[in-house]
């Protein structure tokens, strides 16, 4: 392709509304053009990258027996009413009225299309498993379209849906797709971690996200570089080290007067101890208005997401007024010597649901505040804690001797610097982009659309479903965020818009330069090498800057200077310096470089 004829040029002007590296470089490089917030045109340069990504995904989905289909983007509202998502997804739905006043939605996802479609073809267990995917434009009224093509209102997605006879069959398939996803990211030149996602509070839904580490990411993950695993910070687990001797002799509990501020730091300073020697008590308000105390080691924080999950309900920290209403003294609360509340405790932990115990409702004493605890308090001896009276503390407080706890759980917020629960190495906190998401849907949608099959025994059963999404346009932006420098984009070879950027310098003055460059261009085209040929009458500086901005992996320069010694200049975008290659040998070497690592299996390719 001759750059002089190319639709979509580079610009050195930084777009005024570019809020991210990908928005700036993709726009300046002539890959995309923003029509409105979260709505982009893809110019030929951008379309080429997108198509390459799509082709990689297509190959990997075909390899796990996915069959490509294409479903409509415009859905009758009735389908969405059938799953209730007309209401639950209302905030992001674009709606429109058709002829005769019929209501439609622009699909943000395709469970409502694929499930009734599959129902028509699934009758018996012999029709399963079935896996179908498509590349589709999705519409989501995102409250804030941002970060260039990373969060659009109209965007590209590959979505695949699978149907199975059993959970076990889904489990096996799910693992195959997980690996196929990792293959996709690797082939696209980015490193993705599989991260267990935190489903909603009430959902035990299993899902995994694929996170690509870059500062532009919206998600925060904790990475163990040694184990090569990452965790969502909301639900991360880690090894909690006890800095004290767990075999320490238990001493007798004593009440002491201590004038101090309410914080853990002030407490530790006043008693001249480490914060980890303090038994911290945090009080939360339950949905029914009741209160619940949570004990944790003083140097650790309660993770409210884990707590909510454990309790099966959303909880919030209790206010000062809530605490004082039942006679608690903020800063001096502990499970030892709690005040009894006259006439019973109105604000008590009356009911909570411990998933781990499988108990739906646990009724508690209404006499005083009820406590649960994080596992971290089990191994520390001789704690210091409040005495439930102003400026009075207890020292040498021991679990089992001075107070008891019925329910323990992992309730700690894990942060950077904590130890990996597998290998003990330090966890690192980093920002990441969610580049894909896979879910075990179970029977949620097959139930809504009554997708039944007859099993081997002749019984009717609901099909078990999985769904698997990759944002194709988001992946374009993700690659740019992960692979760039101050001059521009650095495309991995597999998804680069062109493989070779051929530059002729001074061709308008030197016919030999023109002829030599044209000859190379022709030979490469003949060999099906994708070449962007900068044949414009522009300065060397402009052409080099454009090449760096666009980011094609191999740059070949033909000029009077290089031809003097019968050479061309060869420079990889990933390297600072170029080298000289004999003009005669250049086409052959370029072709070898382009196809050298091709694994298509076609002998003619090499
Ligand atoms: P997010 O958590 O980022 O909002 P999601 O969990 O709602 O995304 P899914 O419905 O699972 O996303 O969609 C599958 C994939 O589609 C995501 O992993 C992401 O790569 C991509 N995607 C989702 N929303 C957008 C968007 N607004 N713009 C571009 N890509 C998106
Ligand atoms: Mg998500």
Please give a quick description of this structure.
Helices cover 25% and strands 27% of the residues.
The proportion of strand residues reads: 25-35%
Which molecules are bound besides the chains?
Answer: adenosine-5'-triphosphate, magnesium ion
Based on CA atoms alone, the radius of gyration comes out at 31 Å
Helix proportion range: 10-25%
Largest sheet: 9 strands, mixed
Tally of individual domains = 3
Task: Characterize the overall form.
Answer: globular
CATH topology of the largest domain: BirA Bifunctional Protein, domain 2
The CATH superfamily title of the largest domain: Bira Bifunctional Protein, Domain 2
Q: Which CATH class of the largest domain? A: Alpha Beta
Q: What is the architecture of the largest domain at the second tier of CATH? A: 2-Layer Sandwich
Low-pLDDT sequence parts: 353-361
The count of helical stretches stands at 15
What structural class should be given to the helix and strand makeup?
alpha+beta
Mean pLDDT: 92
Distance between the termini: 23 Å
Task: Count the beta strands.
Answer: 31
Question: Top keywords for this entry?
Answer:
606 residues, alpha+beta, BirA Bifunctional Protein, domain 2, YbaK protein, Rossmann fold, 3 domains, nine-stranded mixed sheet, five-stranded mixed sheet, 15 helices, 31 strands, binds adenosine-5'-triphosphate, binds magnesium ion
Describe the fold and architecture.
With 606 residues, the protein is α+β, with helices and mostly antiparallel strands. The protein has 3 domains: 21-237 and 429-482, Bira Bifunctional Protein, Domain 2 (BirA Bifunctional Protein, domain 2), CATH 3.30.930.10; 254-409, YbaK protein (Alpha-Beta Complex), CATH 3.90.960.10; 498-605, Anticodon-binding domain (Rossmann fold, 3-Layer(aba) Sandwich), CATH 3.40.50.800. 25% of the residues lie in helices and 27% in strands. It has 15 helices and 31 strands. Strands 3, 7, 8, 9, 10, 11, 12, 21 and 24 form a 9-stranded mixed beta sheet that branches. A 5-stranded mixed beta sheet has the order 16-14-15-17-20, with no helix packed on it. A 5-stranded mixed beta sheet has the order 28-27-29-30-31, sandwiched between helices. A hairpin with a 5-residue loop joins strand 22 (452-454) and strand 23 (460-462). Helix 2 (44-63) crosses helix 11. The longest helix has 21 residues, at 167-187. The protein is globular. It starts with 20 loop residues before the first helix and ends in an 11-residue tail after the last helix. Bound molecules: adenosine-5'-triphosphate (ATP) and magnesium ion. Magnesium ion is lined by residues 209, 434, 437.
